[in-house]
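Sequence only, no structure available. Ideas?
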Amino acid sequence: MVQERTLPVFQTSQVQISKEEGLRLYEDMTLGRFFEDKCAEMYYRGKMFGFVHLYNGQEAVSTGVIKSLRQDEDYVSSTYRDHVHALSAGVPAREVMAELFGKATGCSKGRGGSMHMFSGKHHLLGGYAFVAEGIPVATGAAFQSKYRREALGDANADQVTACFFGDGAANNGQFFECLNMAALWKLPILYVVENNKWAIGMAHDRATSVPEIYKKAAAFGMAGVEVDGMDVLAVRQVAQEAIARARAGEGPTVIEALTYRFRGHSLADPDELRSKEEKEFWFTRDPIKKLAAYLIEQSLASGDELKAIEQKIQAEIDDAVKFAEESPEPDPSELYRFIFAEDE
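Reply:
I predicted one. Tokens follow.
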């Protein structure tokens, strides 16, 4: 079985997008893909340790949602598959790579590693290793935005929070509890379900009574929408609409993005459970190739321009690896530092 659900239809011909915006989306998605490919190389060369979960194939979701937010103002909550979310949120590739190498110059000072990216400066609330762990954190961030604006009278507190999690998390209690609170209080939050069909080795359709996750929003009286997570323009449109509703005080949205990871659950996963037929079906829907074809067809970019972006990104990735390799290890004398908040 390849896929039971029909992918949502989105008419890209109706999209109004500038050349600048199109290239910005392409650059961000390419950064995510090239970064993850380099992570795989470094992991197998023994430069990274522990579990490393890559994002290949899902780039349209990160780029489509996060690049629709206000960078360094709105909030992003991630999962254990968090490298690309961090990059889209503006965390420098150097800091993300250094964190993966466990270096003091990493965005989490070398304390977090692959599953715990964090950057206060970029309003990245963290990656969370426990399934659904980030949902309550993101809900709290959305609550404080609303509280500061309505209770404390801060007119500038109109931040929106984007909370990312996988299909497996949608079966956990935190998901339902937080949706109830978010709907009750009309919190400015997007619950973005990256439904890549597999929760480690459990097929999504075997683990839930209602496979259409976006429909569960209706039980709480909130907006729920399904989108083709392999089409960045479709994700972008849905995200922009949900962000506008949230910022206007109209409450939360559940966005179910139908996507697919091109690699195993982690780099330690031999990926033997998914069929060849299923993988090949999704490989043909590569979101980066899809956007590239659109930009060229619409005369928004040439092949040479896209190639120049790829070369620029490759140089950035190579620089990030060099920076990570040359960065110092955390000082043992600071073992207990960063447990509590520090003054700026």
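The chain has a mean pLDDT of 95.
Hope that gets you unstuck.
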